[in-house]
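Bench log. Compound arrived from synthesis this morning; before running ITC I wanted a structural hypothesis for how 4'-deoxy-4'-aminopyridoxal-5'-phosphate sits in the protein. Inputs:
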Amino acid sequence: AALLSVSRTTAINAYRQLEEQGLISTRVGSGTYVADLAPPIQPSSPTVPWSQLFTPSLNTQSSSILRELIASTSAEGIIPLAAGMPDPALYPLIHFNRLFSQLSAHLNGADLGHIPTEGYVPLRRILAARLTKKGYNVTPDNTMIVSGSQQGLYLITKVFLEPGDYVIVESPTYLGAIQMFSAANARLLSLPASGRLPLDILEDYLIRYRPKLLYIMPTFQNPNGRVIPIEERHELLKLAAKHRLVIVEDDPYGELYYGEQPPLSLKALDPYGGVIGLGTFSKMLFPGLRTGWVTAPETVINRFALEKQYIDLHSSNLSQKLLYDYLTEDLLDDHLVSVRTEYKRRRDLVASALKRYCSPHLTFTLPTGGFYFWCTLNNGILTRQLLHEAAKTGVSFVPGEAFYADASGARELRLCFVTHPEEKLLEGVKRLGKALHVLGNN
Ligand code: PMP
């Protein structure tokens, strides 16, 4: 290519003309920028192009869906049926206030120093004992405390996944897991999560792609509420054992059932030691404790602990001690009995309100546990249209698309039925019905 040489004055004049036309801007001490790309000027600090310094591999696309959601949920006057939160009015505050006062009155230096990365040992013991009662074959050494099961998911991702690795997820599945695996540049294979567990598809994936792991919620799946029956759990484990597949079983809702107790967890039934269990107190008690757990073989726990050291050394002593005191007084089971009763009432109320106010434009199957109604829109109505219309009538939900690794879910949505008292839930469903009828009549 020919090299064109121009004088300094010609170049300066050319820059000046571009600047006069508003096509570029010059910053003293920083350089010349194409106008639209110039970083905004921070009033009193030197200009740092922050977003250009973030590592290119950071995937911000899907996290923006979440941010938008949270924004719409918190808008004034909106009844939020989006977030998967227990009702703060049902938090066992009487006990936690008392236990917290006792704890703070007798704190000593040892309580405020570092504790092992794997967690406060007495809590690990009492938790492992609780899990053993539920059929798990675990000791405290197989049980690690994490800052919410979200951190467990992070540790699993960090320890097992390299860019390009295949991960099987259900379709639909938990948004946070899609985001986590995508941010690690894993490739997601979708396993349909309705009806019978499609073992033929799963086996095909296992043979063809040699995936690193399967992420699955066998009990009260988020978002669709599905429970995998016991026979299918055994079949899944048999296939997994044959292919030495690692299964990550996420089970935040297993104790929140409104009819029969669900079947034993995969981790409890696991004959080959390939299941990693994730659990949390966020839904049974409250999310602000940031306390969850991972159950896995000791070798895996040790590797997770190394990784957790990089993040936070260990989860908060105070949360762990408080929880330990709560569990030691044997208060959790009574609490669970009372929230199950209340959430069942709310589920039934929302189910009949949905039939009354949202038929025939919306259909659902009754969830037997967990926090959500997973709904399908009929009559050609799209979830995006409904989201728009519902913002006007004053109710929010999570659009189905958020739960798919591919572009499905355009006619689905998730409603949380536990966070509010009955009148507010009823009003929320009425508002949803109003929005649906506007669209249905068009
Ligand atoms: N997994 C699932 C399926 C969830 O629904 C949630 C909470 N929305 C989490 C993990 C994370 O929960 P936490 O970090 O609060 O324990």
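What the model suggests: The mean pLDDT is 90. The first strand starts at residue 24 and ends at 27.
ITC booked for Thursday regardless.
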